[in-house]
Amino acid sequence: KQEVTQIPAALSVPEGENLVLNCSFTDSAIYNLQWFRQDPGKGLTSLLLIQSSQREQTSGRLNASLDKSSGRSTLYIAASQPGDSATYLCAPREGDSSYKLIFGSGTRLLVRP
Amino acid sequence: EAQVTQNPRYLITVTGKKLTVTCSQNMNHEYMSWYRQDPGLGLRQIYYSMNVEVTDKGDVPEGYKVSRKEKRNFPLILESPSPNQTSLYFCASSLGGTNYEQYFGPGTRLTVT
What we know:
The structure holds 2 protein chains of 2 kinds.
Chain A: E1 4-7, E2 10-14, E3 19-25, E4 30-38, E5 44-51, E6 56-59, E7 62-67, E8 72-77, E9 86-94, E10 107-112
Parallel strand pairs in A: 2-10
Antiparallel strand pairs in A: 1-3, 3-8, 4-5, 4-9, 6-7, 7-8, 9-10
Chain B: E1 4-7, E2 10-13, E3 19-25, E4 31-38, E5 42-51, E6 54-57, E7 65-66, E8 76-78, E9 87-94, E10 103-104, E11 108-112
Parallel strand pairs in B: 2-11
Antiparallel strand pairs in B: 1-3, 3-8, 4-5, 4-9, 5-6, 7-8, 9-10, 9-11
């Protein structure tokens, strides 16, 4: 059974810092992995989708890497801003027909002005 | 605007009173699914649908029903809600195939008393 762990569980940084959020998963048989952000009381916003055959994916100040064989993904946020404050969730997609995403518990990020 | 919509956004009901949470997407996506989010348990898949008239159980289907009569709609039905179904519910959709990201609705917060 796939298990997803995100470290750290919470992070507080001053504005402008570069930071790394970590995600590990136990079963490497995944189709892809998505990173989401969740704001309090709101839905999930897709940030990046990285395919199992890819090593990296970039969008603006965000960069996600994937090492499928070791079961790891990282989300790099450059020059953090207070607007980046949210919970970040990683979700590998199961390698079967269910299209099921398995979610970690998330990293709660606070960027202080 | 491409989006997944859910209604209602908030609902308080009593045990045993049947309810339906609607989900609709305007992106012509084949795949749709329902998740629930609970503290400490993360997001878990309830049901999913690969296309019209094709549905299947996820990890926590007990107490729920779904239907997929039209491509754009995927309602979640609670025939006899119980307090343990108090949760935050999300609908998601994507194109079929392995390489597409999933888009989530804004969530429905359900309280069953």
